[in-house]
């Protein structure tokens, strides 16, 4: 009995040692934060319309996580307009990431049950046969695209925590 308990305790310790902990990290100095399982090193750039774009990607256990956070130069108070911008940006990313298959946009999501946000979900496959899950969010002042991709089967539960883990200022 003691050997069995010792084995179980060692096994649990091993799982914990190799587990990834969820950390809240600032998205540079944007005012946004993201909950993730690896450390992001954000790069700051400007879009053609002078909006500020923060990007980062990190990987762990063959799963790669990415964040694109945009602070709009000109905010929109109309979530329908902001959602239209999100769709256009996701269409652009499909080309940039060489996406070959898409399931289609699932709309109507809210971030942390906040009615002042809008979210879009999609599943992609790229030319290297990586599976992607992408979720884009906006509140009209900011837009964030969070994604995970891997050639292996992804842990959907864990990935969903990340994809729903962006927080805009004031949330």
How many beta strands in the DSSP annotation? 11
Percent of residues in helices comes to: 25-40%
Would you tell me the structural class of the helices and strands?
Answer: alpha+beta
In whole angstroms, the N-to-C terminal distance is 50 Å
Low-confidence stretches: 1-18
Identify the CATH architecture: 3-Layer(aba) Sandwich
Characterize the largest beta sheet: strand count, sense, and whether it forms a barrel: 8 strands, antiparallel
Characteristics:
171 residues, alpha+beta, Protein Transport Mog1p, Chain A, 8-stranded antiparallel sheet, 3-stranded antiparallel sheet, 11 strands, 25% helix, 39% strand, globular, disordered N terminus
Brief overview, please?
This protein is 25% helix and 39% strand.
Description:
The protein is an alpha+beta fold and 171 residues long. It has one domain (22-167): Protein Transport Mog1p, Chain A, CATH 3.40.1000.10. 25% of the residues lie in helices and 39% in strands. The protein contains 3 helices and 11 strands, in the order αβββββαβββββαβ. The strands form 2 sheets. Strands 3, 4, 5, 6, 7, 8, 9 and 10 form an 8-stranded antiparallel beta sheet that branches. The N and C termini lie far apart (50 Å).
């Amino acid at each position: 009995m003691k050997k069995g308990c010792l084995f179980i305790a060692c096994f649990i310790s091993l799982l914990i040692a190799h587990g990834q902990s969820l950390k809240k990290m600032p998205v540079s100095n944007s005012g946004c934060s993201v909950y993730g399982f690896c450390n992001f090193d954000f790069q700051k750039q400007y879009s053609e319309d002078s909006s500020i774009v923060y990007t980062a990607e990190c990987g762990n256990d063959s799963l790669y996580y990415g964040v694109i956070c945009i602070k709009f130069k000109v905010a929109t108070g109309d979530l329908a307009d902001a959602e239209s911008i999100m769709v256009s940006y996701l269409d652009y990313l499909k080309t940039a990431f060489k996406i070959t298959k898409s399931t289609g946009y699932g709309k109507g999501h809210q971030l942390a049950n906040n009615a002042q946000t809008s979210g879009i979900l999609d599943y992609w496959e790229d030319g290297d046969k990586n599976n992607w899950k992408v979720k884009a969010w906006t509140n009209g002042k900011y837009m964030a695209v969070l994604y995970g991709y891997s050639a292996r089967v992804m842990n959907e539960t864990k990935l969903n925590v990340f994809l729903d883990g962006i927080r805009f200022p004031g949330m």
